[in-house]
Amino acid sequence: MSTLIHPNDALVNEEAPLPVIPVCEHFAGNRHTLLKAFAIQAEYGPVFDITCDCEDGAATGTEISHANMIVELLNSEHNIHKMAGVRIHGFNEPVWKQEVDILLSGARDLIRYITLPKAQDATQVEMMLEYIQLASQKYSLQQPLPIHVLIETHGALGDVNKIAMMEPVEVLDFGIMDYISAHQSVITDEAMRSPLQFEHALIVKAKTEIISAAITSGCIASHNVTLAIKDYQ
């Protein structure tokens, strides 16, 4: 006589539960594209996040005014669903600290998450997280800000397990463009598009390591950016 056992009882699953977040994140860097993104989000509902981009969105010398513009939009009637995060500059650009202060003092709990780019290793991520935590306390945020970390350098990929284990980290984003650039033509630019973005051995290796680290630590592994916004396939 056999006994039927439900998979929930038979299978061991002691991994950390994964956060529930939208499946799509839309990057926008200037006022025009941000307003367009907010309009689309208002039309379709809270089904995707908007990342307000300070890094690639701000022209050199306009970083402070750009951050203030983002604060203005986050506080405006355009931000209906309160589902917008921000990408600040990387550790090696000193302006990132000013951006954190401007954003957290001006938008506070309207910020859904902060994305950290260009990290060279886990130490840089840790130092940025410490500053963000202190700023969160200074500006009286009600809860810790989730952090998205772009894995786009050799050093960050080498430390991906350490980064994934850091408490505020919610998402590991694969930055395919900078990752390919870091290989100095060993990976050709064709790998930014299909099918090589899914088949090139070095990219498959990077994605596998990122996914493994994310799953083990209870955060989300995010696929790289795409420019094929009109490709419904």
Features:
233 residues; 10 helices; seven-stranded parallel β-sheet; alpha/beta; single chain; globular
Would you mind describing this structure in some detail?
With 233 residues, the chain is an alpha/beta fold. The protein is 41% helix and 14% strand. The protein is built from 10 helices and 7 strands. Strands 1-2-3-4-5-6-7 form a 7-stranded parallel β-sheet. Helix 4 (95-106) links the parallel strand 3 and strand 4. The radius of gyration is 19 Å and the shape is globular. The protein starts with 6 loop residues before the first helix and ends in an 11-residue tail after the last strand. The model has no long low-confidence stretch (mean pLDDT 92).
**Shape designation:** globular
* H-E order: HEHEHEHEHEHHEHHHE
- Annotation, overall tally of beta strands: 7
| Strand order within the widest beta sheet | 1-2-3-4-5-6-7
Unreliable spans are none
Calculate Rg over CA atoms: 19 Å
Largest sheet: 7 strands, parallel
Structural category is: alpha/beta
Question: Helical proportion?
Answer: 40-55%
Question: How many angstroms separate the termini?
Answer: 49 Å
In short:
With 233 residues, this protein is α/β, with parallel strands linked by helices.
Topology:
Elements: H1 7-10, E1 25-28, H2 31-44, E2 49-53, H3 63-74, E3 84-87, H4 95-106, E4 111-116, H5 122-138, E5 147-151, H6 154-158, H7 160-164, E6 169-174, H8 176-181, H9 196-199, H10 201-217, E7 220-222
Parallel strand pairs: 1-2, 2-3, 3-4, 4-5, 5-6, 6-7
